[in-house]
Design a protein that fits this description.
Elements lengths: L5 H21 L9 H20 L12
Length: 67
């Protein structure tokens, strides 16, 4: 079992929805029948969304250093 926060689970669920949307486009739901390229694209959809959602709450990296 993992020790994830509710926010982390929300972010992960957004990634799952993005991966699901890709599978809908393909008309496939069984991961076992996907080609290597399709699996990679599925993972990219999921991970891209998780990364974007995670970074959404991060402050700008060019903030002035306070010292």
């Amino acid at each position: 079992m993992t020790d994830w926060t509710d926010k982390e689970n929300e972010i992960l669920f957004e990634g799952i929805k993005a991966g699901g949307a890709y599978l809908d486009e393909l008309g496939k739901t069984d991961l076992g029948v996907l080609s290597k390229e399709e699996l990679i694209t599925f993972a990219q959809c999921l991970l891209k969304t998780v990364t974007e959602e995670r970074l959404r709450d991060v402050d700008e990296l060019n903030d002035e250093i306070p010292f």
